[in-house]
Amino acid sequence: MTNETLTDAETRDLRALAGVMIPASITYGVPGADDPLIFDEILRNLERDTADTRTALRHLAELSGGAFADLAPDRRAEVSARFKQEGGAPLFSLNRVVLLCYYRDDRVMRSLGQEPRPPFPKGHVVEQGDWSLLDPVRQRAPMWRRA
Amino acid sequence: MLDKVDVLIIGSGASGAAVAWSLADTKMRILCLEQGDWVKPTDYPTNGRNWEARLFSDFAINPNRRARETDYPINDANSPVKVVNFNGVGGSTIMYTAHYPRLHPSDFRVKTLDGVAEDWPVDYQTLEPYFAENDRMMGVAGLAGDPAYPLHHPPMPPLPLGKSGQRFGKALNSLGWHWWPSDSAIATVEYDGRAPCINLGHCTPGCAQGAKASTDITYWPAAIRAGVELRTRARVREITTDETGMATGAIYYDAEGQEHFQPAEMVIVACNGVGTPRLLLNSVSGRFPNGIANSSGLVGKNLMFHPFALTYGYVDEPLDGNHGPPLNLWSQEFYETDRSRGFVRGYTLQLHRGTGSIVEAITSTAAGRLPWGEDHHKVYRSLLNRRLAMSTITEDLPEEHNRVTLDPVLKDSNGIPAPKIDYTIGENTRKMMEHGIARSKEILTAAGATGFGVEAPIMNGGWHLMGTARMGTDPERSVVNEWGRSHDVKNLFIVDGSIWVTSGGVNPTSTIQALALYIADNIKQRLANATLFD
Ligand SMILES: Cc1cc2nc3c(=O)[nH]c(=O)nc-3n(C[C@H](O)[C@H](O)[C@H](O)COP(=O)(O)OP(=O)(O)OC[C@H]3O[C@@H](n4cnc5c(N)ncnc54)[C@H](O)[C@@H]3O)c2cc1C
């Protein structure tokens, strides 16, 4: 939608923020959203959200008093907590891009027990279920009003 | 100048396709102008790994977000419910979820039964054969015997219950409340050359399997085989008239922005509850200074949406997630009026399956459930595939201040004024939503869910667009007569959701299409006895 790209400084802050949002986890064996492959995907998918992302990152830089990426861990945590409260719609758009790239990464999908593939053409199996559950409803008198 | 046609249909969606197919057997020269393109099955999101992500880009349901060249912008700032649609061959059926209930007999008689709004000039019984014909043409899955409806026989077996369906069924049984497998416009077996559903689970933004009955794969192939011409990338600016006040055709822009005049003996408008009033209001002339067919002043007024309330919770075991069509059951327990509830009319409860992994992450973030940092992974795993959700589809009563007008500034890429929506949720509807949310929580509790969330109204929930050119017998209180013809312009017809008098509390497409077939039949009968333009 737009040819705008982020500046290097914005890119660094976005990556640092993505790592705060979803850090890598040893427990679950997953990368963070700042993982190089995932982060590249995020940059490629800003599309309609580029302007909002830039607005959010400007706000983040203001709260950080400079580059968010250069803050010490404690200060990062403090700033990101405040940003989460105050970031509003632009932050929501940024966060959404992070999520929609993170939750389609092969490694992440596998850790969730999901096959990393598109739904088509294989599809999925859904059980028919127990249709006798409907028996009490079948026995009801008509409920619609005659008009 | 282009050759004159007998019938010019504007809009190729649910109603435009049905009317085109039905009229084809007259052997008249029929042309449909559609502003959008054909969508290829290979373009649908479920073909790729970014299938969920595309819900937020080129397959977004909100046209302002999607912003394809073929879309027109809508000023929705003054409405808590935003209009969603699709512009292309098949219209919004490309993007619908194919939940396919009919209106009930009582929905056509709201004034007589409940003393509100107006009765319709047609009734369920009159439409019954058209419902059946439409079910056959679209291909409907369902189960005969629902006590909430007059008996009818969907041509295919119902969608699978799945894990969530069984939970809901048990919960509703324990409360003694009605539920039933939905009529769904989704093929559950091979049907008329279409392959059966394989539970791709992402029906709304288009079905790559072709199991979902969008009209580009149901009515249109049959209509085209029968000789109807469908011209895409043809965006109509206005309907033209002559000095006698009859419609003469339409002016449209092609993909290159070239203007054309298409002459016609009669014009049928099928642009939906927002696109139709927009087109009528844009069709201004000395004779029709307030827009064509608008002597009543009602074009654009009485917009009805069915405000939706989404209520959900989480259970302690994985369900089907987004596998399978998202909607497969309904409850009509609270559909018919019971004044002790504090409102008149009623609502459907639409029971959902779960969501995909990205939509779960995004909606849970919006709801403030999904933290940043270390805990993110643990919390996310407690939510994924555990969501049990339902929505309340409220009957929205007609109110004139809820309306579509022309925006004084906003225009589409051809410079045509865009629609502006002014809409507030009425008191009766609000009470109904609250009632529905409370009942939904009872059902979810009985189904073992906790941690409730509510979105009311669903903001991007303006998918049902009705009432803005309503039908009736009184030309001062309606825009078209009881068989869809404009009171003012005797060769102009409207067949889409704008002609609805009241909204009922169910998804509208089955009834929109039955009405379009009914109007087509009326046109044919009056053509046969030469009274069509009397
Ligand atoms: C996300 C979503 C989910 C839905 N789910 C359901 C559901 O489960 N069940 C249900 O019953 N309904 C559902 N609906 C609603 C359903 O799609 C509509 O009720 C139905 O398609 C309306 O039919 P229509 O003929 O009135 O208009 P549409 O199908 O919207 O067709 C209108 C057509 O007119 C064209 N058009 C408009 N203006 C012009 C112009 N000036 N020139 C040329 N062409 C023009 C448009 O491009 C479009 O193709 C859903 C809709 C959406 C968007």
Automatic annotation (TrEMBL), chain A:
Protein name stated in the entry: Gluconate 2-dehydrogenase subunit 3 family protein
What species was this sequence derived from?
Reyranella aquatilis
Automatic annotation (TrEMBL), chain B:
Any keyword Flavoprotein? yes
Q: InterPro entries under this entry? A: FAD/NAD-bd_sf, GMC_OxRdtase_N, GMC_OxRtase_C
Ranges for domain Glucose-methanol-choline oxidoreductase N-terminal come to 87-307
Per UniProt, the keywords (alphabetical) are: FAD, Flavoprotein, Oxidoreductase
Annotated Gene3D superfamilies: FAD/NAD(P)-binding domain
| Domain Glucose-methanol-choline oxidoreductase C-terminal: residue ranges | 398-516
Q: What is this protein called?
A: GMC family oxidoreductase
- Organism, by scientific name, is Reyranella aquatilis
